[in-house]
Amino acid sequence: MVxxxxxxxxxxxxxxxxxxxxxxxxxxxxxxxxxxxxxxETARRAITAAEKLGAIDILVNCAGAGIFGPAGSYDExxxxxxxxxxxxxxxxxxxxxxxRFARDGxxxxxxxxxAALIGxxxxxVYCAAKWGARGYTEALRAEAKGTKARVVSVxxxxxxxxxxxxxxxxxxxxxxxxxxxxxxxxxxxNVAELVITR
Length: 198
Description:
By secondary structure, the protein is an alpha/beta fold. The chain has a single domain (2-196), classed as Rossmann fold (3-Layer(aba) Sandwich). Helix content is 43%, strand content 17%. It has a six-stranded parallel β-sheet with strand order 2-1-3-4-5-6, with helices on both faces. Helix 1 (11-20) crosses helix 5 and helix 3 packs parallel to helix 4 (124-144). The N and C termini lie far apart (32 Å).
């Protein structure tokens, strides 16, 4: 068993990678080590590295970025960054591994956000990217029916992570959220959707 975790350099992705690494090899994908997760070449490099360690059967898409402000305040670069980090990266890694998982077995976990469930002021483009990732995940889950692939979506609420420029007192500890996600991966019953809030 080998896992690939995107967004593994900090926050929730790092916490998930650390928990999984207690019992299996993990390839943690970060911009520093592999490059932009929305680039198909990054996915190819990560998969090649993971294949050297064994059979890949877990993919956790946790890469993301946040840029916030009122509608009309986003320039083209901000829009591209939000869509790449929160939507395209998920599609790129899923598309690279889903056919293999459908044939041989494997679990995909796409980390979304409660912003994928409800519109929030000053988060219009972030919400759009997360809603897109949710739609993609639901379509992927529909394709997975009758195959050996399992697709799980996770919508966590606010966490105290480096995602925010300052500490967020009262937000969830990413290690606690990671433990819920890893528990869902381990369960024999099919956990399709998780919403994690305090």
